[in-house]
Structure formats: C-alpha cells, structure tokens
C-alpha cells in the first residue's frame, strides 16, 4: 500500500512539474511572439492571404522558425503560387519538418510543423511545380526571414553556399546585365526601372542582324530586331528569377509577335541572356510558369544569347517619364 501511494505521489509530482513547465513555456512565448505569431504557431491559426510579411518577398535568403530560429526554407525554393501565402517546393532539409494529418476545416489536409519547436507552419499540397509537384503553403507569421547578406552575421553562414553571389566580398561583386523584350519598350522600361534592385535601364533594338538599326529600320519588321530594354541590376538586391517573375506578370508572354495593339516581330517576347546562369534560370522560370497555368496558353518567350544592342533614339528613352499619359499596354496582372 505504501509503495502504491509513493508511486501515485511521484506521478502526481511529475505531472505537476510538467504542467508548470508548459505554463512557463507558454508565458515565455507570449512575451517573445506577437499575438499573430503565437496564434499561428501555437494555436494553428491561419493569417490572411496577401496581407502578410513574405507572400511577395523576392529577396535572397532563408526562412527560419520564429520560435527557435531553426532554418526551414530557402528563397531558392520559393515560388509565386498565387495563393497569397509564401510557397516553397521543398524545405531546406527534409529533416527539419514533421507532418500531421489535419481533418479540420471540413477536409483532410497535411499539416506541416517544425521538427524541433513543433510550431504550426502551414500545409503541404500536391499542386506545386515539378519535379515533385509539392506546394508548401506556409504562414509568414511562423517564420523570420534572414537576408543572404546577413547569413554570416546571424550565425547561418553554412547556408551561404545557396547564394554564390554573397560568398564574395561586396566590393568585388559585379552588377548583372540582361536584355528583355516584351512589346513596346516604353511600357516595359517604365515598369522595370521601378523594381527595387534595378540600377539602370536603356531602350533599344536587339536580336536582329541588321547593323546600326534605328527606329525607322526596326518598325518595318524585317530587321529581326525586337524593341528591347537593357537592364543593369544588383544581384545582391534582386534575384534574376524574381526579375523574370515580374517580367512575366507585366506583359503577356503567350502571344506570338504581339503585345496589345502592337503587332509584328519587333514586339515579340524575348530574354537575351548574358550568362549561362541566366539561361538556366530563364528556362527554369518558363517551365515553372507553364506548369502553374497562370497563363492559360504556353509561353512563347525566346531565350537567346544577347547580341548587339543598338541604343534607341533619345526621344524613346524614359518615354513615359517624359509623357506620363503616353501610350502603354503594360501593367501588372493579379494572378
């Protein structure tokens, strides 16, 4: 009888201690996290789409658990799913997450939790891009973003290998250049120059064989040139993939030799790459966009090495800056 009483007393003490620890942990988290972060990670709440910190974040870096700082996802695996929440094709390492069947909301879903802190992150679906077709739909409130330039400083230096550009000293890092064509160059330039990380834009003629092409030559449609924008951007601030995502949103890349009212070869969609890396990224982005079916028809954008770029006449440079009400058929679509 004494032994049974001692065991019961011990069990009661252990349960009381566990309860005290859980209560203390909860109080610590309430102090550490915002109300929304606590509701999402500890109570499985869902933040509103399109009104959260990272759904439209295109900066290079990693996403860590807001509770314990453990790495979860990388921007290299992030894509725009159109859902209004950050979406990833895979976690930074398969061992950092747990999965649990979720029968709430009147359906069966797969919940994603962080392995270490057991934070509720979001859900995973089978409608993502290839090759695995996974879409990790994650709440921004469950994560903290660490920019690639800050990885070493924040203690995540081992992940710099994911971002080769940031492994060099900033003083030695070079800006990148690419030439994009997407219809009338007035509208493309006006939108591109406003993208954070874009340093310079010039309009001109590229992709043809006719020497020293001018507007009068190109508008005839038989020189092979496309109205284009030469873009200089800082890869520390703007990933090439993110630039292309915006490019495919500001014009229709599925119409052959046409944008809006402008018809003909000079108004085709094209990416004139300046490195093999840009070529690989461009092909990857086009494949992803085709699989997403955001545009109902296949993308017909050319991907070719950059060739001679003939600067357009001064009257065409920053045309919509000079003429705010001037013609344009370019705008950002909401997918």
Any overview of this molecule?
This protein has 335 residues and is of the alpha+beta class. It folds into two domains: 61-162, Metal Binding Protein, Guanine Nucleotide Exchange Factor, Chain A (Beta Complex), CATH 2.170.150.20; 174-322, Peptide methionine sulphoxide reductase MsrA (Peptide Methionine Sulfoxide Reductase, Chain A, 2-Layer Sandwich), CATH 3.30.1060. 25% of the residues lie in helices and 24% in strands. The protein contains seven helices and 17 strands. It has helices spanning 2-32, 35-43, 185-192, 215-218, 240-250, 276-292, 319-322; strands at 61-65, 71-74, 78-79, 87-88, 97-102, 109-114, 120-125, 135-138, 143-147, 176-182, 198-206, 226-233, 258-259, 262-263, 269-273, 302-305, 309-311. The strands form four sheets. A six-stranded antiparallel β-sheet has the order 3-4-8-7-6-5. A hairpin with a 6-residue loop joins β5 and β6 (109-114). α5 crosses α6 (276-292). The longest helix is centred in the first third of the chain and has 31 residues, at 2-32. It is elongated, with a radius of gyration of 25 Å. 36% of the residues are buried.
Brief synopsis:
With 335 residues, the protein is an alpha+beta fold. It has helices at 2-32, 35-43, 185-192, 215-218, 240-250, 276-292, 319-322; strands at residues 61-65, 71-74, 78-79, 87-88, 97-102, 109-114, 120-125, 135-138, 143-147, 176-182, 198-206, 226-233, 258-259, 262-263, 269-273, 302-305, 309-311.
């Amino acid at each position: 009888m004494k032994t049974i009483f001692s065991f019961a007393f011990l069990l009661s003490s252990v349960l009381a201690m566990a309860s005290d620890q859980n209560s203390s942990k909860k109080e610590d988290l309430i102090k550490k996290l915002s109300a929304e972060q606590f509701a999402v990670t500890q109570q499985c709440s869902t933040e509103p789409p399109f009104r959260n910190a990272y759904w439209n974040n295109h900066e290079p870096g990693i996403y860590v658990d807001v509770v314990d700082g453990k790495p979860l996802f990388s921007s290299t695996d992030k894509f725009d799913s159109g859902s209004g929440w950050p979406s990833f094709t895979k976690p930074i390492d398969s061992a950092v997450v747990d999965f649990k069947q979720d029968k709430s909301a009147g359906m069966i879903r797969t919940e994603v939790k962080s392995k270490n802190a057991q934070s509720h992150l979001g859900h995973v679906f089978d409608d993502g891009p290839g090759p695995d077709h996974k879409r990790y739909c994650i709440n921004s409130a469950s994560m903290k973003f660490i920019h690639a330039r800050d990885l070493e400083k924040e203690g995540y230096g081992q992940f710099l290998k994911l971002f080769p550009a940031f492994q060099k000293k900033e003083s030695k890092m070079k800006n990148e250049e690419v030439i994009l064509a997407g219809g009338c160059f007035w509208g493309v330039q006006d939108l591109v120059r406003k993208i954070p990380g874009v340093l310079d834009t010039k309009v001109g003629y590229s992709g043809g064989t006719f020497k020293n092409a001018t507007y009068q030559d190109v508008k005839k449609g038989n020189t092979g040139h496309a109205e284009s924008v030469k873009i200089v951007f800082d890869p520390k601030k703007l990933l090439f993939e993110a630039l292309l995502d915006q490019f495919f949103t500001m014009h229709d890349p599925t119409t052959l030799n046409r944008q809006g009212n402008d018809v003909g070869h000079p108004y085709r969609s094209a990416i004139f790459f300046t490195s093999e890396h840009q070529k690989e990224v461009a092909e990857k982005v086009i494949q992803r966009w085709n699989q997403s079916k955001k545009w109902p028809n296949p993308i017909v954008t050319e991907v070719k090495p950059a060739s001679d770029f003939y600067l357009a006449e001064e009257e065409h440079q920053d045309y919509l800056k000079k003429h705010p009400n001037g013609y344009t058929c370019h705008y950002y679509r909401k997918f």
